[in-house]
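Reading is simple: each integer encodes one residue's backbone shape. An example follows:

___
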Amino acid sequence: MVTLDFRTLTVPVGILRILEVIFTCITFSLVASAYYMTNSFWAWCMFTWCFCFCVTIFILVLELTSLNSKLPISWDDFTTSFAMLATLMVLTASLLYSIIFTCNSCGRQIAACVISFLTFILYAVEVGLTRAKPGEISGFLSTVPGLLKVLEAFVACIIFICLDFTGYSTHPGLQWCVAVYSICLIFALLVIILTIGRLLSHFPAPFNKVLIACNVLAVLMYITAVIIWPVYSFRVGSRPSYCPVICPWDIIVVISFLTCVNLIAYIVDTVYSFKLVFFTTQT
């Protein structure tokens, strides 16, 4: 029997989610009414708003009907990781759409960007409310290393979106960088899936120590990518005097920057995980 729990809609997190549904709906409605494009960046922005709208409604309905307690997953890990993912996705969509598809006379596009940035703030506040506090017992994805795993996976996905505008297939060095992004993304997704699915207890080895080992390996691999990607990519020279809105040279710079971002994320993840396993445990 389904039991309706209206308190889930009146608590701060519930109110935030209702506003998120409204704002994402307004955003993709404004964008869809402006014009349709087959550009991959436009498709990414539209997918982001629709995806966040649907999943947030899904979370609201399950918590309202108390069906979330019957699912064989870690609900707190799922909602926290989604809030983190939505924060990153909406921020990226807001920046991309405002830079590429907005002009001074584009009223609907400007309104969509403003509402999208407000939606980003809502999701960021939700992350702050649902993130585990120090000393609090919670799921892995509610902790700093868990949120970093979501960040690492998201940044890798953005890199893959940008790879379409580069000639990485012509250089073995760039192919190695793509292999680094792929291997580390698969590992991050595996950790997220195992955590949400409550499968960590079935892992045949101490998960925390395996996690540290993989993080160290990811750091070493990303160090090579941070060096190799710019060396091979910028052989073409400086930025062309004429470059379209979606400029391949700019895309190369973005990938280089995101590679550095993920390297920093993996370093922080490794240090934090090392501290939790070897120092907190001993204490």
About this structure: The mean pLDDT is 86. The first helix runs from residue 7 to 10. DSSP finds nine helices and no strands in the chain.
